[in-house]
Structures are given as C-alpha cells and as structure tokens.
Specification:
The chain is mostly helical and 111 residues long. It is 91% helix and 0% strand.
Length: 111
C-alpha cells in the first residue's frame, strides 16, 4: 500500500506541476498581449502627435502668408501638400519595419 501511496503522490505532484506550468504560460501570454497593446497605443499616440505638429506647421505657414497674394498661398499649400505626401510615403515605406522592430522588442522576454 505504501508503494501505491507514493505513486498517487507522484501523480498528484505531476498534476500540480502541470497546472502551475499552465498558469505560468497563461500569465506570460497575457503579459505579452498587454505589451503589444501598449506598443500599439504608443505608436498611435506618436502618429497623432506628428499629425498635429504637421497641421500646426501648415496652419502657421498659412497664417504667415495670409498677407501675401493668393498665388503665394496656393504655392505654400502645394508645397505643404507635397511635403505631407512625401512624409506619408516615407511613413508607409518604413511602417512595416517599425512595427516589426516594435514587435521584436516587445515580444522578446528578458529574464
């Protein structure tokens, strides 16, 4: 009977260890998801700040040139639109790399 008891205790220990391992994996998965969400939120916030800055710069240029002729305003609008398109193109070109870099750093577990 003593051998059966030890076998039963061994099975219980294995079941406990498995449950503990599942909890650890679940906690790690939840932490990873939280880090990914945080990285996404930070990236969205940075994009919003950049857009706001570009809009403020545009509005400042428009205000500075409001005393000029309509041709100057149109020229500035065209230049600004060109710069915005250039920045959007650059952002589109590198956004995948930035996301990959963020994911790489966020998902790497350092102990």
């Amino acid at each position: 009977m003593d051998g059966g008891n030890r076998g039963q205790n061994g099975i219980q220990s294995l079941l406990s260890a498995e449950q503990e391992a599942q909890q650890i994996v679940s906690a790690a998965r939840n932490a990873k998801l939280a880090r990914l969400k945080q990285a996404k939120d930070e990236a969205e916030r940075e994009v919003a700040e950049f857009r706001a800055q570009m809009e403020a710069d545009f509005q400042r240029k428009v205000a500075e040139s409001s005393g000029d002729s309509g041709a100057n305003v149109k020229r500035l609008d065209k230049e600004t639109e060109g710069k915005i398109q250039h920045l959007k193109t650059d952002a589109d070109r590198i956004s995948h790399d930035v996301v990959e870099m963020l994911l790489k750093h966020v998902t790497s577990v350092g102990y």
